[in-house]
Amino acid sequence: MEHFWSAKPDGTAWVTNYGECWQSLHGPNDLEPCVAPPAVPKEFNVRLNFEFDKYRIENIVNDGELQRLDDYIAQVNDTPVREKISLVGHTDAKGSEAYNYQLGMRRAETVHDYMISRGIPAEDIMSVESRGELDMLPGVDIYSLEQRRVTIKADYEG
């Protein structure tokens, strides 16, 4: 028994929420099969570093990592998968613990807003938090640019 793709009125194949083509015993037999959506990595990690005492997107100094984030967002937006995303803001050791906590939170919230503005659903961002100066990268100067970061971790929810 031959199966055909179910068609919309415009002649394109119907696609489920999971990106699968609907098949039917009836229907046009001249439709091209659906193109599989690009695979989304099971886990995604990126570290965005910021200028000293700054928290805006334009203050990110490692543009390559920001581009990786943009590419990831575009890839997620093109697929039906759901993500579990966590954002954690960090600072270097300059300043008080209270100030650094607030600065880390502003950095994480900036990235949160950026991701939502690019199409990530708010409900996919599970946590936005700050570690301030409390979670330093080991083996890295505590006043280094590398400490001033937001880490983004995303796991596929399948």
TrEMBL record:
Gene3D superfamilies: OmpA-like domain. It comes from the Bacteria. This is Outer membrane protein A. It is found in: Cell outer membrane. The lineage of its organism: Bacteria, Pseudomonadati, Pseudomonadota, Gammaproteobacteria, Chromatiales. Residues 37-158 form the OmpA-like domain. Its main location: membrane. One of its GO terms (cellular component) is cell outer membrane. It comes from Imhoffiella purpurea. Pfam families: OmpA. The keyword Membrane applies. InterPro entries: Bact_OuterMem_StrucFunc (IPR050330), OMP_bac (IPR006664), OmpA-like (IPR006665), OmpA-like_sf (IPR036737). Keywords: Cell outer membrane, Membrane.
